[in-house]
Structure formats: C-alpha cells, structure tokens
Design goal:
3 helices; Nucleotidyltransferase, domain 5; alpha/beta; 119 residues; globular; two-stranded antiparallel sheet
Length: 119
C-alpha cells in the first residue's frame, strides 16, 4: 500500500495546491518499507491525481482537498483522508496505528443552503 501526504516544509500542507512536494510512503503489514518525495514543481494541481495513481498510491492524507479535486482522486481509486494537520512524521505514525479517518481534523466544508458544517 502506498500513502501520499502533500507537505509544506515538514508539515501536512493546508491544501494540496499549496504543497511543496508529496511524501509517498510504502507500507507492508503496517510497517514502512519505502519512502520517496515527489517534487511538484511543474505539476499542475489537476495533474496530481494522475501522477499519484501512476506511482501506485491508494490513500491521500491531506489538510484540505477541494471537492472537485477529491472526486478526481476517487476516480483514480485513491481514498482521501482530509482535515489532517500536523507534522508529517506524526501523521504517518498515527496512520500506521489506524488512528486517522476521513474528516478527522478541523477543516470545514460548505454545504449549499446549509452554511458551514463539519463532516
């Protein structure tokens, strides 16, 4: 399994489009067996789902993902866990311990006609 985390410095990027790069962690039986950092210079935001799918990524963990971009990730069979903030190493450790799930963090989504709402 490969997990991708958009990063800004040593933290989870607040939005995929603000990321300096993406850390791709390969996990087997809950243990890290590989890691690579993808440089996003020259890669458009809408190209990121395809690039990650070509790398074999199946999970994206991020601070925030706009709904259309989230749909693109899902079209490439990449599950999205959004609303996560913090240090990248801490987030990886929490994910390996099954402590992350969709909407865990403070990000809010706009719901037409209903105002701000946490999921």
């Amino acid at each position: 399994m490969k997990v991708a985390i958009p990063v800004y410095k040593d933290r989870v990027a607040p939005r995929v489009g603000f990321a300096d790069g993406i850390v791709v962690v390969t996990l087997r039986k809950g243990e890290e067996v590989g890691r690579e950092v993808l440089d996003l210079r020259g890669v458009g935001v809408l190209e990121i789902p395809r690039v990650l799918a070509e790398k074999g990524v199946t999970v994206l963990i991020g601070g925030g993902v706009e709904r259309p971009l989230e749909m693109m990730f899902r079209a490439y069979n990449i599950d999205v866990i959004w609303g996560v903030i913090g240090n990248v190493e801490d987030v990886i450790a929490l994910y390996k311990a099954n402590g992350l799930f969709r909407g865990i963090g403070p990000c809010r989504r706009w719901r037409r006609g209903r105002g701000w709402r946490k999921f």
